Amino acid sequence: MKQISMIAALVAGLILMQACGSKNGKTERELSAGDSIALQQKLDSTKAANDKVERDKARAERKRLADERKAKETYDRSGVTIYNRAEVKPSFKGGETAMNKYFKDNLKYPEAAENKGWRGKVYVDFVVGPDGKVQYAEITEDTDPDTEQAFKDEALRVVMAMPTWVPGSQQGKKVAVSYNLPIEFFGSEY
């Protein structure tokens, strides 16, 4: 809607300029050609900005729906409670530095994507069980639907192959806790 009103305002301005005549010595044809190029550049810029806003809105809505869905799911397939938040969160053994090293050593940039220069970000939900094992990994709605499938497959593979974590706990008891992890693919320079 904003884009339509912006276009209408630019067209009205262009018509007004032509009606008033040229005051800088340019011929009417030169003024129209220059104004047409400027108008097209402004429209292209406006469209790009509007596209980004729409993508951001769509991502926010996907995240809202995913969070809503996660809040409702509190049991695994065998009836064990899965905590969305626990008093003590699960952690990768060795901390964030060790996790980054794990991804650097194990994440493989898909060859087809590398040849085309693609990049992407995949969000993976999984559960760290009371035994510290990663279970139930899945790609979340936060992930852009246009993300290359090879990225999604590789993200799931590497998450499911993770070593045992330090499990989360609730009231001193080890419990299953859900975890969300973004995985970025920038290229083979990993």
Name of the CATH superfamily of the largest domain: TonB
What is the count of DSSP helices, taking H or I runs of 4+ residues? 5
CATH second-level architecture of the largest domain: 2-Layer Sandwich
- Just give the CATH class of the largest domain: Alpha Beta
Strand-residue fraction?
A: 15-25%
State the end-to-end distance. 42 Å
Any idea how many domains? Answer: 2
Largest sheet geometry = 5 strands, mixed
Using only C-alpha atoms, the radius of gyration works out to 26 Å
The residue ranges in which pLDDT falls below 50 over 5 or more consecutive positions are: none
Mean pLDDT reading: 79
Please estimate the helix content: 40-55%
CATH fold label of the largest domain: TolA/TonB C-terminal domain
Shape: elongated
Question: Strand tally, please?
Answer: 5
Secondary structure class reads: alpha+beta
Order of helices and strands: HHEHHEEHEE
Write the layout of secondary structure elements.
Layout: H1 2-20, H2 28-72, E1 82-83, H3 95-106, H4 111-116, E2 120-128, E3 134-139, H5 149-160, E4 168-170, E5 173-185
Could you explain how this protein is built, in words?
By secondary structure, the protein is of the alpha+beta class. It has two domains: 58 residues; 113 residues, TolA/TonB C-terminal domain. Helices cover 49% and strands 17% of the residues. The protein contains five helices and five strands; from the N terminus they run H-H-E-H-H-E-E-H-E-E. Strands 1, 2, 3, 4 and 5 form a five-stranded mixed beta sheet that branches. Helix 1 runs antiparallel to helix 2. It is elongated, with a radius of gyration of 26 Å. The model has no long low-confidence stretch (mean pLDDT 79).
